[in-house]
Structures are given as C-alpha cells and as structure tokens.
Write a structure and sequence with these properties.
Helix content: 40-55%
Radius of gyration: 22 Å
CATH architecture of the largest domain: 3-Layer(aba) Sandwich
Shape: elongated
Distance between the termini: 21 Å
Low-confidence stretches: 228-233, 247-257
Number of helices: 9
CATH superfamily of the largest domain: Response regulator
C-alpha cells in the first residue's frame, strides 16, 4: 500500500491481518523491480502521494507487472483522471473517505479475478506449427515427443508463444521470466533463446519459431523454415523532409497531466 494516510492505513492493516493478508505500507514510490521481488497479489495506491509522477508510475507498474491487481484509492479526482487511470492499467478506483472493509474487499476481488484468469489461461494448451505447448505439464511436444525443456526454458517459450506476433524486448522478457530487472550486459535471454531454438530445431526442423529483432528482442511466430533468412533490423531513420511533415492533431478531450491532492 502506497499511502500517507496513517489512520486509514492502520485500520486497513488490522482488517487485512485478520483476513490472513500481509500488508506493507510505503509512503513513496517503490521501483517496479522491487515490487516484483515482493511477490504481491495486489497494490493499493494513492496517486496524490506521487504528484506529477503518478501517471508515469501507474503506467510502468501496470506494464511491468501485468498479473498484479492494481487499485487506486484517493480523495479528489475528475472523470478524466479516473478514466485515464483505468486505461493505464488500474483494475479499480475508489474515492476517499471509504470504509477499510470495502477497500479490503475490492483488493480481494481484484486479486481473485487476476488469479482466476491466470489459471484459466495457463490451463489451455497452445498449438503453434508442429508444436503443442502444455502449461499444465510445463512441457512442449512435437508429434507427441517431448522437447525435454528445463523449467526456465519452458517459461521463456510459453511467454513468447502467449505474445505470438509481438516483439518483446530483452529487458521485458527477463523481467517476466526471471522475475527481476536485468543487469546491464546480462546475456541470459540470448543464451536461453539459443538453447531453446536448438531444441526446437532438433524435433521440428521444417519450422522457424523464434525470430530475432536486432538490437530489440524476439518475436514468436511459427513459419516454415527458410522464409525468414535474416534478422529483422530497426527501420531506417526518417529524412528531414519526412520529419518536417505535420503531426496528427491532438485529441480534443482534455486530460490532466498532473495529479495532486487538490
């Protein structure tokens, strides 16, 4: 819980403890990589505590921890602010003053929905090319023959397959598979992708599954081998004439750029 309202926090912490939850209070922003290490089920945050950094922080937390239940609880807000927060990734928005019992119930509901959705998603096999990915067994098969993957290799394969067609940056892959921020110069993602490709090629040589985007990351998109012969490089820089073209008109809908306690 990121909040400075000591009275509300104290009462909510007591209710949470009685319900079997463990709650930790912070009075300022916690780096998303530290939130990953805390293995949270839910986060309750008052964006007024963060001031001008609130929107950017909500966006980073929602992006880096997609399985985390995120609830905003603050005193004064506009419709535009609530809409923006929910679209950034908040699962619920509460207005103070509110009853701690209701706040706890909303946290429980958000965490329950996230957990249920994750389990339902994990239970479904994924088919790709000649590959069948079985999350219930932490294994993948080609024509009923197992790939003999380690747990980490399976998690990497499953993540890429879930985001089929999307380019995932190396840092993003590391965050979601290893569970914490990638150190500068760490090549673990590349090493594991190389091992995974070798195992895939051994049983399914006629298909290419994982494609490299040079300097960015990887994309999972099964294609018959030989179609993609080169790594995909970033698009060239625009010419001066292209840069001079007028930008699209901004939206006429007013959206607040800052969030203060009012």
């Amino acid at each position: 819980m990121i909040d400075t309202d000591s009275g509300f926090v104290t009462v909510l912490a007591r209710r949470a403890e009685a319900a079997g939850w463990q709650m930790s209070q912070k009075t300022g922003p916690v780096p998303p990589r530290d939130l990953v290490a805390m293995k949270l089920n839910a986060l309750l945050i008052d964006p007024a505590v963060l001031g001008d950094e609130a929107w950017n922080y909500l966006d980073r937390v929602a992006s880096m921890l997609p399985d985390l239940g995120l609830v905003v609880c603050t005193s004064r807000s506009t419709v535009a602010q609530r809409v923006r927060g929910l679209r950034l990734g908040a699962d619920d928005w509460m207005t103070k003053p509110c009853h701690p019992e209701e706040a706890l119930a909303r946290l429980e509901a958000v965490a329950r929905r996230r957990r249920r959705g994750r389990h339902e998603h994990e239970a479904a096999p994924l088919a790709a090319g000649e590959l069948e990915i079985r999350p219930d067994r932490f294994q993948a098969f080609v024509r009923d023959e197992a790939l003999d993957l380690t747990r980490r290799e399976f998690e990497l394969l499953y993540l890429l397959a879930e985001e089929r067609g999307q380019v995932l940056e190396r840092e993003q892959i590391y965050q979601r598979v290893w569970g914490y921020a990638m150190a500068h110069g760490d090549r673990s993602v590349d090493v594991f992708v190389r091992k995974l490709r070798k195992k895939l090629e051994s049983l399914s040589p006629s298909w290419a599954y994982i494609h490299t985007h040079f300097g960015i990351g990887y994309r999972f998109d099964p294609e018959p081998a030989g179609i993609v012969a080169e790594e995909i490089h970033p698009a060239p820089e625009q010419s001066d004439a292209q840069k001079a073209e007028p930008a699209a008109e901004p939206s006429s809908q007013a959206v607040h750029n800052t969030f203060t306690a009012g």
